[in-house]
Structures are given as structure tokens and as C-alpha cells.
Design brief:
Length: 376
């Protein structure tokens, strides 16, 4: 009987695993069946979200492409695309319950790949694909309009998303006040490039507040002098009144459908060096659902390639091999559309190199090749 591989998640990891299995594994298993499940009909290039929310800079087709046409070259008997979300997984019975717009389906599998990634705590956040394509694009458009209308903007969370968002907004709108709040005494979690990135932010005119952790926020009633504004309360009791509050912290794994036995204490998936999920048979994982050694596009890319290779090896009765990650820790951060900060391992790289590596396009030129599989 044809081996069936169910791939959950239509983002960086899931798309790559599905294409690699169909392009390479199908050479030795002509009757292989790959079922790709994605709650978003489109691939949202969330690396560009920090620029996409700035009104008038990007077109939607630059960071948002339909998934299904990219798989049209494969025979129908080898591939199926399901727009829906995984609601429950019985890893002993090897079934996944998927909810679609027309109802529920129970999918049986020989191998299961977990690539459902992570989400921001704020359900309306535009930084990741947190729902259907309509919901994701609506969130991006709404944020664009809010940024357009605001004169004072507070961004909470000085990780890469917060730093890049602050830089993008201030680069485009020199007349807007942009305040970046860091809960620590350095931005970017104290990474070696924190000082360089902060210097670039200050050159753009971003106001950087350190040791300014947010306790809560509330939108004020429309009436009165402060109507329509948001009050941001810091842990030290200070209150900041702003036209627009953009939180960029609070990332959670999309693992609610999985049993506790395959999860770490932090709810991320527990997997070994082969990409195999622990305490389950023929279940694999790649990308931000693991966040090991950390979350990141380049890490997800390597994990997805390794998982696809190992599934192919298992189907051919061969031994699996450890997933090969990038040999050095690379971290590059855009700061506006002209400059950035970064390092390769412990060596800092010039801003111009960061511009060429990331800032210029935010990697959007790679998106078509990932969607249609021509990159793999």
C-alpha cells in the first residue's frame, strides 16, 4: 500500500518537506502520497512583515503567494492540499483530525511531519500567519492604516521583530515619534550586535527605552482629549500615552493539538538529532515548533531538509542520519531600509553586508522558489 506522509503546516518547514518528498522520494516510491495541511491558503513571508505593515512600501504579492499552484506539477495521486487546521492527533492510532471550512476529516498516516510553527500571543498580530489568508492580510492592512494615522507609536519588545519594525516605520516616516521599549538593559536580548543595532536606531530617530518592561495596556474611550489613544503601563508604574501600541513579544508554539507526551515543559516539541519526535513512532518535526537550538529561517531550512532526507531513508530501509544545521550562528537584523547590524559566529559584519544579505529584500526573492519547490 502507498506510504502516506501527512505534513502539517504550510510555511517554511512544511512546504520544503512536502516538495522534497515529492521531488526526491517519489523517484524510489512512485506511489507515495503526500498530504499537506495548511490553515492558510497562501504562504505568508513573515520575514517581510516588519516592512509590509508600513503603508505604501510593498505589494501583497511580494510577501503573500498561493500555495496550491506550486504543487500543480505533481500527479494528483501523489499530492493533496487541504486548507484547514489540525485539531487533534492520536499518535498511537496514527491519525490526525483536521477541521476545514466544510467540516472535519480524519487523516491516517504512515509518517507525520509537524511544521505548524509558532504564533504571537496577540491573536491580531501581523507578524506571523495566525489564521486564514483573509485574516492575515486583514491584520496587515489594518496595521498599515493605524501606522498611517498615528503620530506617536510605541513598540514593545526589542527582539528582532521589534527592532526591525521600529526601524522600518521611522525610516519611512521621519515626522512620527517611534518609541521602542526593551524589558532588558540591552536590546536584542543582549546579543553581541545590540550596541550596533541601537546606534542605527538612534541615527534614524527612534527613541529607545531600556529596562522598560510592559505590565499592561488599555485602549481609552473615544470621547475626551485622550480619546482613541492607548495607555501603556510599565512595571515601574509609568504610563505612556500613545496613538498606536504594537506589541512584538509573547511567542507561543502551535502545539495545542498534540499530546503532552511529545512536548517539552515549554510546550515546544521534543525531538532528537534526527528530527524524530520523541515518545512517538514515525513522527517528525522541523522549524519553529521545535525552536532548537533557536527559532529562525535558516535553522528551519536545514531541519526541513534533514527530516525529508530521513523519511526517504526510512522508506528505503536505510539508517537515518543526524540533521545538519548551519556550522556557525548567524544573526542579521535590518534597521530601516538602508542599514542593519549582524554577525557570523562571533565576528561582526559591516552594515553594507547586512544590507545585501537581508535588508535590501528581506529574502522575498526566495519565496517563489520555496512555494513551487524549484529551490530544493
Amino acid at each position: 500500500m502507498a506510504p502516506t506522509i501527512v505534513v502539517l503546516g504550510g510555511s517554511f518547514a512544511g512546504l520544503q518537506v512536502a516538495h522534497r518528498l515529492l521531488k526526491h522520494t517519489r523517484n524510489t516510491h512512485k506511489d507515495i502520497k503526500v498530504i499537506l495541511v495548511s490553515r492558510d491558503s497562501h504562504f505568508f513571508w513573515n520575514l517581510a512583515a516588519v516592512r509590509a505593515v508600513v503603508p505604501g512600501v510593498l505589494k501583497e504579492e511580494q510577501y503573500n503567494l498561493p500555495i496550491e499552484p506550486g504543487f500543480s506539477k505533481y500527479p494528483a495521486e501523489n499530492f493533496e492540499f487541504i486548507e484547514g487546521s489540525a485539531e487533534a492527533a492520536d499518535l498511537d492510532a496514527r491519525t490526525v483530525r483536521v477541521v476545514t471550512a466544510t467540516g472535519e476529516r480524519s487523516l491516517s498516516y504512515d509518517h507525520l511531519v509537524l511544521g505548524t510553527g509558532s504564533r504571537y500571543m496577540d491573536a491580531n498580530s501581523p507578524w506571523k500567519a495566525n489564521g486564514s489568508n483573509e485574516e492575515v492580510m486583514a491584520s496587515v492592512r489594518a496595521t498599515q492604516e493605524k501606522i498611517r494615522a498615528a503620530q506617536h507609536i510605541v513598540i514593545a519588545g526589542a527582539g528582532a521583530t521589534g527592532v526591525e519594525t521600529a526601524g522600518e516605520i521611522r525610516y519611512e516616516f521621519k515626522d512620527k515619534t517611534v518609541v521602542l521599549l526593551s524589558g532588558n538593559d540591552q536590546i536584542l536580548g543582549g546579543d553581541a550586535i545590540a550596541g550596533n543595532a541601537e546606534s542605527e536606531l538612534l541615527k534614524l530617530g527612534v527613541q529607545v527605552r531600556l529596562n522598560a518592561r510592559v505590565k499592561g495596556s488599555q485602549e481609552l474611550p473615544d470621547e475626551g482629549a485622550e480619546g482613541g489613544k492607548t495607555e501603556v503601563v510599565l512595571e515601574n508604574g509609568e504610563k505612556i500615552l500613545t496613538d498606536l501600541y504594537l506589541p512584538t513579544m509573547g511567542v507561543l508554539p502551535n502545539t495545542d493539538y498534540l499530546p503532552a507526551k511529545v512536548l517539552r515543559d515549554d510546550k515546544y516539541v521534543l525531538a532528537d538529532e534526527f528530527g524524530r519526535v520523541q515518545n512517538a513512532e514515525n513522527v517528525w518535526a522541523a522549524g519553529d515548533i521545535l525552536s532548537q537550538p533557536k527559532a529562525g529561517f535558516m535553522i528551519a531550512d536545514k531541519q526541513a531538509a534533514g527530516v525529508a532526507k530521513n523519511i526517504d531513508l526510512v522508506l528505503n530501509g536505510k539508517k537515518t542520519t543526524p540533521v545538519k544545521l548551519i556550522p556557525v550562528d548567524v544573526f542579521v537584523c535590518a534597521v530601516g531600509r538602508g542599514r542593519g547590524a549582524g554577525r557570523m559566529g562571533g565576528i561582526k559584519v559591516f552594515s553594507f553586508m547586512v544590507y545585501m544579505i537581508k535588508v535590501k529584500t528581506l529574502g522575498m526573492q526566495m519565496m517563489p522558489g520555496i512555494v513551487d519547490g524549484s529551490s530544493f
